[in-house]
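Fold sample X.
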Amino acid sequence: MYNIFLDSSVIIAAVFSPSGGARALLKLGEFEFVLLWTSNDALAEIEHNVAKYDQGYVAQVAKLLAVARLSITPPPSATNARRINLHINYAPDAVILAAASEIPADYFVTLDREHVLKNLTLSKAVPFLLGTPGDCLAWYRSQN
């Protein structure tokens, strides 16, 4: 079974797009084809950003994540977060990536092109693949 780590951008996309790749990943978790993970830091970002639109979305997020059987990682070690921050230079994302590395994740799914997806140094420093929901779905299909 694969460990798929979802960052906050992917979970938010799943809430607002019921037919997109992010929602398809939640379905894989719901049917127990993969293990889905996120961190408390990512959840805090989600709650902050989604509550700006409508407080009702916070409840929708909670329901979606429960149905998808999303697990929460323990906080990462400070040493690991600092190590990853050397490659990303953005502490909020470094902590989330560090949490993913400690599961360990097989795939880190994000929509963050600026800090994560276009960062070639980062992709060499982490023990998992990085990609969009569509990239992850293509990878998953290629593995099965």
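Fold sample Y, listed below.
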Amino acid sequence: MRTYRLAPMTADLRIASVIMLCLPAAFLVAVLAGHRLMWGPLVFIGGIYAWIWLLFRPTSFDVGRDEIEVVWPLKRRVIARGGITSARIVDAKELKREVGWGARVGAGGLWGGFGWLWTTRRGIVQMYISRTDRFVWLERGAERPWLITPECPEEFVRELGSR
């Protein structure tokens, strides 16, 4: 089994993440300064961020002989390789041509975009991305396609093509 970690974030997502991480930091500073009412927002935001990190943001895509295992800190999902009809690398322009207009449903901005991408041309796409420049598009026949960003996307796609 070969492990492909989630790709490093592009600069735009890194900047968005830093900005979003300032929010709980600001609440923490307020709590430490004696503003007790800020405990609620701090715990709420902290819970959402933990939920994203532990259950929405995958850590790796493990390619085995017969399956791909998507690994999160607190869960795993197996995709049969036989159910993947094609795998290819797409850039942002190709993605726009493929899916049309899209709206994210799930977590976005903090460490990437995770969950569903609702699109005008392809309907719902499973999305687990940490970059905005190079994606791997997994076509799955009658199932929803997947849009992911593993490290070394060329190797990932090449390995899926070999059996």
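Sample Y note: The two ends are 12 Å apart (CA to CA).
Also: Strands lie at 2-5, 60-63, 67-71, 76-80, 86-91, 102-108, 113-119, 123-129, 134-139, 146-148.
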